[in-house]
Amino acid sequence: MSALIVALPAHPVSGATEFEFALTHDGSAVASHGAAQASVLPAPTRAGSEVVALVPVRMLSWHRVELPKGVSLRSPRLRSVLEGLLEDQLLDEPEALHFALQPEAAADAPLWVATCDRQWLRGALQLLEAAGRPVSRIVPEFAPEGSPALHAIGEPEDASLVLAGADGVALLPLATTALALLPPSLPEDTPCVAEPPVAALAEQVLQHAPILLQPAQRWVQAAQSAWDLAQFDLSSSGRSRALKRMGTVWADMLAAPQWRPARWGAALLVVINLVGLNAWAWRERAALNDKREAMGRALTQTFPNVKLVVDAPAQMEREVAALRQATGATSGRDLEAMLAALAGTLPPQRTPTALDYANGELRTKGISLQPDEIKAATSGLKSRGYAAAQSSDALVLTFEAQP
């Protein structure tokens, strides 16, 4: 996933505000990072790229709620229900807050709800859109998911300790006195990740060396979360979101390193299919040529006077007809053979009053047959290689092939 991740500042923005950012081409490694005004932020140029807004931990509050029975996640009154459920837990008026539900939430189970200042968030998004960097997704800096971990962030003079895991997100000052506020059930081996400026302070407070991680790398990891705070009045249309997601997935398949084996497999499959199709076509052409040569040999061996084979079946038919004419033998197209076949299939005492024979077609008049008799006669003639059809005043007989 190629993305520009923009960390939103924890204060109202203006045209002079500088946004910290991280640019990634594969969704896992940081290609570049820095700070710039919205108008000069780098633009991701790859197909399917997206702009991701990162909401800082201090701007979000997290709440655990359970929806009343009869209220679904698609209910048009979902927001008003959330406002009623959280009214006593919120420090601000519900109308001034933006709400977002956890991904893949179930209506019949407790779920996490994130809230933040709506005007602050909307102002930052509008500024980025006006600068030509419309946001596709909004993700939290830390979310209540995964195994618990401690994160030391900020600068030494304003350092914070964040505890994030499936049980929630807590923001504390990075100080020894704040450790008493951590849950007593927190395992002693809980990993601690620290930004380089506060790594020494984190080691002093936690009494063990933390894992160093640059803020830009942490933002890239946060962008991989399934959370998307662009909900309710900030959500895009279902169609545009689906198209954007398809474009992102397609770009990942074309460029992301983790998709390299799949790309090689797809290319190998195409090559194998092309080779197989060409081999099959070559084999079919060879078999067809062998059949043509066999027919030509049969023609020249049977009729040595034929020196040039152009259309073996047609030439064979002409030669057989000429041979039959020379020896006086009859064929299925002759009048005698057709009369014999007709006599063998017509009901007794059914004699035609008139015969009309021309170009291998025999028309017999004066024969009146019932529908079942016509069916029986047609079936019998077909077994002898003839096609029969009853017209208004005659039974028409034509030769098709030898039985």
TrEMBL record:
Residues 28-141 form the GspL cytoplasmic actin-ATPase-like domain. Signal peptide: none annotated. GO terms for biological process: protein secretion by the type II secretion system. InterPro entries: ATPase_NBD, GspL_cyto_dom, T2SS_protein-GspL. GO terms for cellular component: Gram-negative-bacterium-type cell wall; plasma membrane; type II protein secretion system complex. Pfam families: T2SSL. This is General secretion pathway protein GspL.
